[in-house]
Design brief:
single chain, Cyt_P450_E_grp-I, binds protoporphyrin IX containing FE, 515 residues, 3-stranded antiparallel sheet, 21 helices, oxidoreductase activity, acting on paired donors, with incorporation or reduction of molecular oxygen, alpha+beta
């Protein structure tokens, strides 16, 4: 495929490529994160690799930053949906190919990260974290192990559902709306949200692979996917038939409410009684986006708004749950660090407000950053070269796919001394053991004009959850989880969960002393 591109990259080192499948066997054998890590050790900071196209990899912090700051578009991905869903799918910011539209979408996301907006979510996060603590406490001091990853996913899914839709999701039986003549409940919404992640751009789906490999032939893949849908595509379509109309209906309601300047709406009214208007909570993401329509630089269509909300569900819960679970895993392995964390938590008020949370928990922050360094939920970032560029002395032509291998950079001994050790202190001082040898070495949320728009929300939620979890509880890993089995799909997650026994914190010192 694309022999001319291959020829133009022939001066760049890289592993031998097999006919037709290139380096795909390496990805299949190791997973992308580990494969890039190995190639980095073998070929240095710039190398090429063939995975559904030619890619050049920038594997040092400086070069990775260079590709992220100089280029703004990601690789195109074929749109596999037809009709109304085609239009919906085209509004996805991740792989949009028009920069002015991408900027308008990002402008619309920004208010969600303002302190005032985040402050609004703190109460909701406290309640969700309390619930997670209750679920974990149910097995205190019993021999029963619990999958912390499941509990934490349930927590982040609740927070994102409420933050995105402004919907109260505390009662699973609440009917949110009539959709296609049948009631759509909170339980179904949460189930669909879990499914969104599994079926969207699923790398194991043949049509997704074809769309990545040959995006210009998207009409053909679309035709095949719709005439001969495989299981993944059928599920992706099925859940869109509920989530997309649901998001669109809320957008329409809120548009009408904002037009009427009806700021009295405070909560979603399930079913409606004819006198109360349905609506979403003020300050929720839908509300923020709908209000952004009044500004020319942010203006999005209703379909584009619905797609951003849909993406918030996709990007917003699994990533945060994985980051948190990895941090809990590391802390369970290192009781001394967990003690230090608990000491910081006890030095602060029990239910800290937004300002205390952002300013008063440096060690908690450092634990999350260190968990995300060792196990970054986003293992790679991608861009397309906007023009010919010099990358570490190699000429890279315009249009080349560029990859920043976050996991490989985070595990590079020359950048992070004692790279495999869990050392939160390295994020607190330049003199600490294990402090990075160069700036910008931590890339958990990407960098530059396309970096993660949800990073502040994610960090706030993760921090607040740790504060609740480690105030009164401590965790021990059940045997057989070191090293942790990992699963790399769209994100990096724990393959079989993170299984722990749960104990009251006062018992932690004794536990640490146990063999
Ligand atoms: C710990 C949790 C999270 C991690 C590790 C994470 C990681 C990332 C990474 C690595 C990128 C790509 C950045 C780049 O290309 O430079 C990204 C993009 C993005 N993230 Fe996150 N993310 C997290 C949470 C969230 C949350 C909570 C939301 C939404 C509320 C979100 C929404 C997005 C969006 C919309 C983009 C695309 C931005 C664009 O295309 O311009 N993420 N994220």
């Amino acid at each position: 495929f694309r022999p001319l591109d291959r020829w133009r990259l022939k001066h760049i080192p890289g592993p031998a490529q097999l006919w037709l499948v290139g380096n795909l066997p390496g990805f299949a054998k190791y997973g992308d994160f580990e494969f890039f890590h190995r190639l980095h050790k073998q070929y240095g900071n710039v190398f090429k690799v063939w995975a559904l196209g030619n890619n050049v990899v920038a594997a040092s912090p400086e070069l990775c930053r260079q590709i992220l700051l100089q280029n703004q578009l990601r690789f195109p991905v074929g749109n596999l949906f037809a009709g109304e869903m085609h239009e919906f799918e085209s509004a996805n910011i991740l792989f949009h190919q028009k920069l002015d539209k991408v900027r308008a979408m990002r402008n619309a996301w920004h208010p969600m990260s303002y302190s005032g907006s985040l402050e609004n979510f703190v109460g909701l996060m406290h309640r969700a974290a309390d619930k997670a603590v209750q679920r974990l406490s149910a097995v205190i001091d019993s021999k029963e192990a619990i999958n912390a990853h499941m509990v934490l996913s349930a927590m982040t899914i609740q927070v994102i559902a409420a933050a995105a839709f402004g919907v109260d999701v505390s009662d699973p039986d609440t009917v949110l709306r009539e959709l296609n003549g049948t009631p759509y409940t909170v339980a179904e919404l949460l189930k669909d949200m879990r499914m969104v992640f599994k079926v969207t751009n699923n790398p194991n789906c043949i049509y997704t692979q074809l769309g990545l490999l040959l995006p210009f032939a998207a009409p053909l893949w679309r035709l095949l996917a719709n005439v001969f849908p495989n299981e993944n595509h059928a599920k992706a379509l099925d859940l869109r038939t509920r989530l997309v109309p649901f998001a669109k209906a809320l957008v329409a309601d809120q548009t009408a409410a904002v037009a009427e300047q009806d700021d009295t709406i405070k909560a979603f009214q399930p079913g409606g009684d004819g006198t109360k208007r349905k609506g979403v909570a003020a300050g929720s993401f839908i509300d923020i986006l709908v209000r952004s329509k009044q500004h020319a630089t942010m203006s999005l269509t209703d379909t584009e708004i619905a797609n951003q909300v849909y993406l918030m569900l996709l990007a917003g819960f699994e990533t945060t749950a994985n980051a948190l679970s990895f941090t809990v895993y590391c802390l369970a392995q290192h009781p001394d660090k967990a003690e230090k964390l608990a000491a910081e938590i006890h030095s602060q008020p029990e239910n800290p407000d937004y300002t205390t949370l952002t300013e008063g928990f440096p060690y908690t922050d450092a634990c999350i950053r260190e968990g995300m360094r060792l196990y970054p939920p986003g293992t790679i970032v991608g861009r397309v070269a906007a023009k010919d560029m010099d990358l570490g002395g190699y000429k890279v032509p315009k249009g080349t796919n560029l990859i920043g291998p976050i996991y490989a950079i985070h595990h590079d001994e020359s950048v992070w001394p004692q790279a495999e050790a869990f050392l939160p202190e390295r994020h607190l001082s330049d003199d600490a053991v294990g402090a990075p040898t160069c700036p910008h070495a931590w890339l958990g949320f990407g960098e530059g004009a396309r970096s993660c728009v949800g990073s502040r929300l994610a960090l706030l939620e993760a921090k607040l959850a740790l504060v609740h979890l480690f105030r009164n509880l401590s965790f021990r890993l059940t045997p057989g989880q070191v090293p942790l089995k990992l699963l790399a799909t769209i994100t990096l997650g724990p393959k079989e969960g993170v299984w722990v026994t749960v104990h009251e914190r006062k018992a932690a010192a004794n536990l640490a002393a146990e063999p």
